[in-house]
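Researcher: We plan to redesign the surface later, but first we want a full-length starting point. Tokens attached.
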């Protein structure tokens, strides 16, 4: 194996490990990484061979990547196989991931907090425990809504105007 192959394999493995932090499975992230660094569209067979995974595993994860909007199908004239390519623009890919995480993680938290707040507001007692609980829920909801708004703004940017400002503020 060449240094290039080693580096490519290390990237795919690392991206797979990082994917679990995003709430997606390792294989899905590895397929995404492979497609990101491939200079041509890959078939399911190509992906299975490269990553040593089963057809079922490949098909299930390809479907999920398509539903996330991170990859798309490509058809080659005269070929019955489906081919897959990754979104080429890193910023668009990042925005897509942010939108999906927002939809799958942040929005359900907001709904759950609002439901809990609605339930606890029915308790009209001035029990200190109830008051503290209600206040904490209100604070959490306010924080999550701010995070949600920030994620919304970031994910809607075609090219980032906000990210450089955030990066400077973090440094």
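Model: Full-length starting sequence:
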């Amino acid at each position: 194996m060449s240094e290039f192959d080693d580096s490519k394999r290390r990237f795919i493995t690392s991206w797979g490990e990082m994917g679990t932090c995003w709430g997606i499975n390792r294989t899905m992230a590895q397929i995404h990484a492979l497609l990101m660094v491939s200079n041509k569209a890959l078939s399911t067979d190509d992906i299975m061979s490269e990553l040593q995974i089963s057809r079922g595993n490949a098909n299930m994860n390809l479907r999920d990547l398509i539903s996330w909007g991170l990859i798309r199908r490509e058809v080659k004239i005269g070929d019955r196989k489906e081919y897959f390519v990754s979104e080429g623009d890193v910023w668009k890919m990042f925005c897509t991931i942010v939108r999906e995480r927002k939809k799958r993680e942040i929005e359900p938290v907001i709904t759950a907090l609002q439901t809990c707040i609605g339930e606890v507001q029915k308790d009209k007692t001035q029990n200190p425990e109830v008051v503290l609980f209600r206040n904490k829920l209100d604070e959490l909801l306010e924080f999550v809504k701010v995070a949600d708004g920030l994620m919304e703004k970031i994910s809607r940017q075609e090219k980032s105007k906000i990210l450089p400002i955030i990066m400077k503020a973090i440094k």
